[in-house]
Amino acid sequence: MITIKDIKNQKIWQNFFNQNDLGTFLQTWQWAEFQDNLGYQTLKLGIIENKKLIAIALAIKIKSKRGNFLFIPHGPIFKKELLNKIIVIKLIIKNLINYLVNFYKDKDLSFIRIVSSSFSISISRRLNFLDIVLISKLLLSSSPINAADLTRSLIASVSFAGSANIPCFSK
Q1: For residue 14, what is the enclosing H or E element?
Q2: Which tens digits make up the pLDDT trace of 107-160?
Q3: What is the pLDDT of residues 3-54, one digit of tens each?
Q4: Alpha helices in 21-161 (DSSP H)
Q5: How far apart are CA 74 and CA 116, in angstroms?
Q6: Is the Cα torsion angle 100, 28, 93, 88 positive or negative in sign?
Q7: Which residues of 134-166 are buried (b: 16+ CB within 10 A; e: fewer)?
C-alpha cells in the first residue's frame, strides 16, 4: 500500500535525492527553502510503500492571475530501480494526484501541474469536470520510461477523470 507523508527531515530528503536524482535542482530541499523565502507555500512529500521511501515530490503552491495552482517541477523523483516499472510509476502518480486533490480540497486551486523529464500532466477545472491533458515528451532517448506507454496507461487509469465531485475543482 502506498502512503504519502510530509517529510520534515532534510537529511532523509537529501539522501534520497542524492541517490536517485537524474540531474535537476528543482526538487532539492534548498529549492524548497528558496521558494519558501519568496513567499510560496511548499510541500515536501515522501511516497512510501512497505515502510520504504520510493519517491519524493516537491509541490509548490503558486498564486497567479490566471488562478492558483500546485506545481511539481521536474518531479517526482522516483527510486532508480522503479524507473522501468511503469505500473508502479503509474500508481505513484495516481496516488500523488489524489493526495494533492484531497489535501487542497478546501483551497481555491485552478489546476495541478506535474512536469517531469518524461511526461507532463495538467489537471484543471473546466466546465465543472476534470480535463486531464497528458503531453508526453521523452527528453533522453536512453530513458527507461516509455513516455507513450506511460501516457496511455495514465489516461486509462486516473479514476476521477470524469468526476465533477472533487471539492477543490467544483464550485
Answers
A1: helix 10-20
A2: 777 778 888 766 656 565 542 333 333 333 333 333 444 445 555 544 444 443
A3: 999 999 999 999 999 999 777 899 999 999 999 999 999 999 999 999 999 9
A4: 29-37, 86-103, 147-157
A5: 4
A6: negative
A7: bebeeeeeeeebebeebbebbeeebebeeeeeb
